[in-house]
Design a protein that fits this description.
Layout lengths: L2 E7 L4 E9 L11 E4 L3 E2 L5 E2 L5 E2 L2 E4 L4 E4 L1 H9 L6 E2 L11 E4 L8 E4 H20 L5 E6 L5 H13 L5 E5 H10 L17 E7 L4 E10 L8 E9 L7 H17 L10 H28 L4 H5 L7 E4 L2 E3 L6 H7 L1 H4 L9 H9 L10 E5 L6 H11 L5 E3 L5 H12 L9 E5 L5 E6 L2 E6 L9 E7 L5 E11 L9 E14 L4 E8 L5 E5 L5 E3 L6 H12 L1 E2 L3
Parallel strand pairs: 1-12, 8-30, 12-13, 14-19, 16-21, 19-20
Antiparallel strand pairs: 1-2, 2-3, 2-6, 4-5, 7-8, 7-9, 10-11, 14-15, 15-16, 17-18, 22-23, 22-25, 24-27, 25-26, 27-28, 28-29
Length: 561
């Protein structure tokens, strides 16, 4: 029976699935079997479609009937704004926290409360059902990608969502690593016009999607070639810090521009009922996405013809609510760049170039001129201003290679799933020596101490830490972790997770509690206190509470007529 290796890019705005299906374990060129597959869903006319390679990360829920619809139809419902309290998106950027949604039924008994893990599981159930319908066989291994800056909480939440969806035998992979793996295997053969020597190269991967921006710098060294495959040592020189910046932000900025023009002729949105507010926001943001894409396509077509470019103008006109319209606006390249100014300009604010500068600065003794080339991917990399900004920053001597902006991540994940088995030795593999974007700190009283150094993580996946008790007769020890770069600059800290753990006895002030920490291959942190005969997951996985949340997902009927 054929083996099936699956890669899933679980995206903020769109998800994709790629597979390698082989009849034999040892094929001369298994990359020829790498392909993206359609994700079965309802289209905008509420008809089942089997020809969409992306699943829009939207869902609509009927809690009374325990019915959920995902994908294109749900996205169109959201855009129409007619069911604003029952259609949802933007799940990925809220993973791992306490965020949840409450969906009202006809009575309190039928109300449905879902956290972001359960919402992600609903999208993954759609994907699982689609794979099973097309292949009718078990998945030998699954890889799901996550942003490189996802913390331990978010990674564990993603793993929980995968299990809730019914998948087994899987692991996580960082999105830039997936793109790089696809790149070094030369993907579908069209990535490079000619062979590129990889050994000794320093590559900057720039991955900008719908909600996150990942930048990392990797040094590649081809190791001694095996008779059947090449192993490439990949040393991550630096990573960008967490950057929640992507296509959604551009849509919201343009949507806010539309909304301000609309409010000039009618009452403020804040003066309206909450349901009307949600309807208005859904409509203006969805229209902003549409006009952003349409205007971008025109601008890209004439970028090298300035006079023709100056004549490209669009006049958005659409109903917002109750017969009231956005109209009378002229939208051109100049206006667009004014709206997006703070996202595009090289400043200290959140923008598309800042994480590039930070990543280069974080790599020791590296100048931007020493970058061999830039790999550009992600849905938002299709926006002309992203490539333009990178070209202006790096100059003409640093090539920018655009890699399959839709499916490179899921294809890299499928390659990683295939490479998971040692006997499958016909594709290039990565010996990844990773590092964190920031150190991991633990809070002790009012102080923060470094628990795990970003520099040592490439070679050290476990260690010990001495927690010094600060209070007399402390019955439990608080374990609260944070990402950061400087223990003295608390405003830069990002909380990871936290819980209090009961101690076996009362400790005295200044007595030490020895903690053993470990980061697994998926980037999830576990801590064990030596005096306790148990391992403490900072974020719990399978438990009674997990099983109860999974049951809620199991009871939902996804995309059933």
């Amino acid at each position: 029976m054929a083996e099936l290796y699956v890669g899933v890019d679980l995206g903020t705005t769109n998800s994709t699935v790629s597979v390698i299906q082989t009849e034999e374990r040892r094929l001369r060129n298994p990359i020829e079997h790498l392909r993206s597959i359609p994700i079965i869903q309802y289209d905008k006319d509420f008809k089942i479609t089997r020809d969409r390679d992306t699943l829009p990360s939207y869902f609509y829920c009927k809690p009374d009937e325990k019915q959920v619809y995902t994908g294109e139809w749900a996205k169109n419902l959201y855009a129409a704004g007619n069911l604003p309290m029952h259609t949802f998106t933007g799940i990925k950027t809220r993973m791992g926290g306490e965020s949840f949604i409450q969906i009202q039924g006809t009575s309190k008994e039928t109300d449905l409360i879902l956290d972001m893990t359960q919402c992600s599981a609903i999208l993954l159930k759609t994907i699982k059902q689609s794979i099973e319908e097309q292949f009718k066989q078990k998945i030998d291994h699954l890889v799901v990608t996550v942003p490189a800056a996802f913390n331990s909480d978010e990674r564990q939440a993603t793993k929980d969502a995968i299990e809730m969806a019914g998948f087994t035998d899987f692991h996580l992979l960082d999105e830039p690593a997936a793109t790089l793996l696809y790149f070094i295997n030369n993907g579908d053969g069209s990535l490079l016009k000619s062979h590129v020597e990889l050994s000794g190269k320093k590559i900057l991967i720039y991955d900008i999607g719908g909600g996150t921006l990942d930048v990392c710098i990797a040094k590649l060294e081809e190791e001694e070639e095996n008779e059947e495959y090449v192993n490439i040592k990949v040393s991550i020189e630096s990573r960008s810090k967490r950057e929640e910046l992507g296509g959604n932000d551009f849509d919201q900025y343009l949507g806010a521009y539309f909304l301000s023009e609309f409010e000039n002729r009618t009452k403020k949105i804040s003066e309206r009922p909450i349901e009307e507010q949600n309807k208005i926001i859904a409509r203006v943001v969805s229209q902003a996405e549409k006009y952003k894409i349409a205007l971008n396509d025109k601008i890209k077509e004439y970028l090298d013809r300035p006079r023709r470019l100056e004549r490209i103008v669009m006049t958005p006109e659409f109903e917002v609510i109750h017969g009231q319209f956005v109209q009378g606006i002229n939208l051109d390249k100049k206006v667009l760049e004014e709206v997006y100014a703070s996202l595009l300009t090289d400043s200290n604010r959140q923008n598309i170039i800042r994480p590039v500068k930070e990543s280069i600065a974080a790599a020791k003794n590296l100048k931007k001129e020493e970058i061999s080339f830039v790999i550009l991917t992600g849905g938002m990399s299709n926006f002309y201003a992203v490539e333009t900004a990178l070209k202006e920053y790096f100059g003409k001597d640093v090539p920018i290679i655009i890699v399959d902006t839709t499916t490179s991540v899921s294809k890299g994940a499928a390659i990683d799933a295939y490479n998971y088995f040692e006997n499958n030795i016909s594709l290039k593999k990565m010996d990844l020596q990773d590092r964190l974007a920031e150190d991991i700190f633990i809070r002790i009283g009012k102080r923060f101490e470094c628990l795990i150094s970003r520099d040592e993580i490439a070679t050290k996946k476990k260690g010990k830490f001495s927690y010094v008790i600060q209070e007399e007769n402390l019955p439990s020890v608080p374990i609260f972790l944070f990402y950061g770069q400087d223990g003295n600059v608390r405003e830069d800290f990002t909380p990871i997770a936290g819980k209090r753990v009961a101690l076996p006895r009362k400790y005295e002030v200044l007595e030490e509690v020895i903690m053993n920490w470990e980061i697994d291959a998926d980037g999830v942190i576990t801590i064990r206190i030596e005096d306790l005969d148990e391992t403490i997951c900072v974020k719990q996985g399978v438990s009674q509470e997990f099983l109860a949340r999974k049951q809620v997902v199991d009871e939902l009927r996804v995309n059933e007529s």
